[in-house]
Structure formats: C-alpha cells, structure tokens
Amino acid sequence: MLNYPNAKKKYASANMDNHGKRGMSLEDDINSTNAYYLEQNIAVVYKKPTPITVVSVDYKSRTTARITEAYYKTPSTTDYNGLYRGKYIDFEAKETSGKTSMPLSIIHQHQLRHLAKVVEHGGIAFLIIRFTTYDETYVVDYRKFSKHLGVINTKSVKYDWFKTNGVLIPYNYIVKVDYLKIVDLWIQGGYGYE
C-alpha cells in the first residue's frame, strides 16, 4: 500500500489505554504525528513515496486495479521531509529490535549523503531511531550522528550512545512521536539551526 500526502489519516484519540501503541510501527506513529501537525497547522511534513516503475497492473476495473509487478526506479533518499517554522526539515526513521546496538546496515550510505547535503544547504537533518525491545524512540541530530560514525570502526551504534547523545521522545496518546519539541530546542538553543 502506498500512502500519498493527500490521503486522509486519523490520529488516535486520547482515550486509548496504555497498551494502545503496542504493535504499531514507528512509521505509523510518525504518520499519525504528522497528520496531527498538519491538522493543527503546526508543520507540513510528509512521508516521501518510494519511486517505483510499474511493470504490470491487474486492471479489472478502476476501483479494483492492482499493481502486480513493479521495481524500484532509484534508491529513495530519506523517509520524511517538510517545513516547520520556516525551516526545511528532513529525516530518516528506523526501528531496531537490537538490545545493545543499532546495526548500521539499516541506514544506507545514500541516505547519509542526502542528510549531509540537507545540512550543507541550511536544512535541519536528523534520525529518529526506535529500539522496539525497550519501546524507546530517540531523535539524533544528523551532524552528531555523522561525527560519531567518523570515530567508530564497527558495524553498529551502541544503544548507550543513543541514550547519551539522542533525545528520548516521551510517548503520548495524540502526538505519538513529538519530534518537533526537540527541533524547537535546537532552533531556540543556538544549536546551529537559528
């Protein structure tokens, strides 16, 4: 299933119980958060569709047309981009079930190069990483992450590094991954994004 920016999505109501988020993916939580941001006129952030080339379609009728064969046209850049408080933001979101680290293999080099270009041109670039084992979601500024990659010689980034260098996003029922609170701190705190 492909979701496009004009697709109507509803975010969860505040009366969900504490276990309501279990089983939801990070992508679902971010999409719900972005829908809330858009509805409340806070920010305009969308998930980028992956560019595909359609080879074959089962076209019985317009309402039941189904892509049966397709391939990726080009590697996608990152998952999300948009505008917030006059600033361009771009980020990649990843989940890992690792208990002690996040494997670097889940983030591709072309995505890191893209985030570097965003920063080079004055945008705000970051990663959102969820450790599903601990049900913890962290926001990490791309520049800090990139600097760390330059000094380690391993195939993963330790969970403890995220705890020390990332910002833990507290979960709430309506704004499930309220990453803009961290972006606000960066903008207001002289973090190079003024």
Describe the protein.
This protein has 194 residues and is an alpha+beta fold. The protein has one domain (27-188): 3-Layer(aba) Sandwich (Trna Endonuclease, Chain: A, domain 1). The protein contains 5 helices and 10 strands; from the N terminus they run αββββββαββαβαβα. The chain has helices spanning 26-39, 109-120, 142-151, 159-165, 180-188, and strands at 44-47, 52-58, 66-72, 80-84, 87-96, 101-103, 124-131, 136-141, 156-158, 167-168. Strands 1-4-5-7-8-10 form a 6-stranded mixed beta sheet, sandwiched between helices. A hairpin with a 2-residue loop joins strand 4 and strand 5 (87-96). The longest helix is centred in the N-terminal third of the chain and has 14 residues, at 26-39. The chain is globular and about 55 Å long. Mean pLDDT is 84; it is low at 1-23.
